[in-house]
Design brief:
Helix content is about 40%, strand content about 5%. The chain contains 5 helices and 3 strands; from the N terminus they run βααβααβα. Strands 1-2-3 form a 3-stranded antiparallel sheet. The radius of gyration is 16 Å and the shape is globular. It starts with 10 loop residues before the first strand and ends with a helix.
């Protein structure tokens, strides 16, 4: 599937096995802002994700193993929160709380789509079987 990057894109990838790349193609702007938030897999212990309070986040993480693309309307709803997180000089505990809040809000959106199918994603569970 080919899709050219739009003015706003938000993609969540929860797999080191999913190959991905973004290219600008027709973009002529010199004013591009890209935000990448990367965190270690151990940040969310399995015991947390199994709790009812984390059910929607857990489901989003599962879907994101194949790449999860958020709609423009979803992006606009959380844009100020993302901007605040990446622009803030304060780090540590408060930044983690903001990340949790953003992930929770993202997990409630229903207008997402998957980037690839599980048959395309190079996941170890598929390779090992």
């Amino acid at each position: 599937m080919y899709k050219e990057i739009a003015n706003y894109e938000l993609v969540f990838i929860n797999s080191s096995e999913l190959e991905h790349t973004w290219e600008q193609h027709n973009c002529k702007s010199n004013n591009i802002r890209e935000v990448t938030i990367q965190f270690s897999p151990g940040l969310f212990p399995a015991e947390w994700l199994e709790k009812n309070q984390f059910a929607s986040i857990h489901e989003m993480f599962e879907q994101a193993k194949n790449g999860l693309v958020f709609s423009l309307s979803s992006i606009m709803k959380i844009y100020s929160h993302l901007h605040s997180l990446v622009s803030e000089k304060e780090q540590g505990f408060h930044a983690v709380l903001k990340l949790f809040n953003i992930l929770y809000e993202l997990s409630l959106f229903t207008d997402t789509r998957q980037l690839s199918s599980s048959s395309f994603a190079k996941r170890s569970s598929i390779i090992d079987s």
